[in-house]
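subagent[fold] <- orchestrator: predict structure for attached chain, return tokens only, no commentary.
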Amino acid sequence: MADAFKLGFGPFAAPARGIFIVFCDEKLNFGPATTKALGPAGDLVARAAKAERFTGKSGSALELIVPAGLDVARLVVIGAGKTAELAQKDLLKLGGAAMGKLPVKASEGTVFAELPGGAMSPEQAADLAQGVRLRAYAFDRYKTKRKEDEKPPEKRSVTIAVGDVAATRKAYALREAITGGVLMARDLVNEPPNVLYPEEFARRARALKKVGVAVEVLNVAAMKKLGMNALLGVGQGSGHDARVVVMRWNGGKRGEAPVAFIGKGVCFDTGGISIKPAAGMEDMKGDMGGAACVTGLMQALAARKAKVNAVGVIGLVENMPDGKAQRPGDIVKSMSGQTIEIINTDAEGRLVLADCIWYAARRFKPKFMIDLATLTGAIIVALGQEYAGMFTNDDKLADQLTKAGAETGEKVWRMPLAPEYDKMIDSKFADMKNTGGSRWAGAITAAQFIKRFVDDKTPWAHLDVAGTAFDSRQTDINKSWGSGWGVRLLDRLVADYYEK
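subagent[fold] -> orchestrator:
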């Protein structure tokens, strides 16, 4: 249970109980503090490693139950491979792997943040600890019954043993702020749609006021006044009214242009009148993964007091098929004044983004805009769950996002934009239609649609996160259905390139 988890730091000392987790390199070498703590048990490790053909390869593990010479219930040795080559994302994975070796029923664990060369630096140990915390997350608040062997203890704690406790705690505080944003995004994506509908999502976003984020919520009347008819058309078939939430973090210079993030927040997507097949429709509670990421990012930036002005705008709707629902063939006038012919009501996310992007650009005149959306199944066909699709009008922003993705492990792959694709969404009856009308290049034509609401002077990127935001690939640091993908990527982008 995530709420019952406690992470702490302490000095190197052999633990008196629980699970003891240590690291070795590819030659089975340990650090000095680890060697001392293991004592005679070190010989057991060598014998067991030979018997199990354990070589210390990165990510491999060797487990000894009730090891002689130690007071712990279990000793786990995790291979770190070539320790001189470890990057931040590798340390996160090691932390996640360590947490993964804490059995469900175990209440305590101690992890030695040490490599053969000695204690990890405070920054490295903090990265390791962040990996532990991300892996520890579980969304189980609605489970009321469990088998006895599946019941976790009421409280679980992991102590990270380090060389410099005070410095590591200071380094971890920054990572804890970022992790809080990731976990918030995961919670939002994992919630069932009868709990998290547009009004409730907006209420939760208001909670960011506690960390210093200014939050403004636009209701239907306000959106009608602004002319947000593309967004409102998506939500008009639902019993839950649409909302737009505007979040602002002012950590930079007064009056300096902000960076802007826009998120698609379709809290449930039936497809509307163009209704989806029943099989797998329950996954459409995650169709607000882009909005969840933007909300988690704003939480992270504020919690770590980022030296930047940032804006988050999320469009929150439900796409439902009642008698008032939008129909194929309808034509709506967007906030930009451009008209849109609705070909397929299941191509709704781009309609939400159209008005939110136009609003963000006109009101805030940002340095750049990045939108995130679980937009197309086509991007999953193209890239699977390893990369998010990136479409952009700016080479510099593309390079920055690519580098931030490589460093965090939340990777993006640039996809094309071109006039030839743009022609596929021209309409006979309006300025454009909301789909290309065929199976071909679906992710690209969706991006071309969004691009029509971005002026050429503003750097912009569209991230299609349909393959990464929910039902996501399980990793060492994520075992959750909702991954919180994008929070760490965009926080790194801001930290590396836009904070003074």
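orchestrator: received. Logging for downstream: The mean pLDDT is 96. Residues 165-190 form the longest helix (26 residues).
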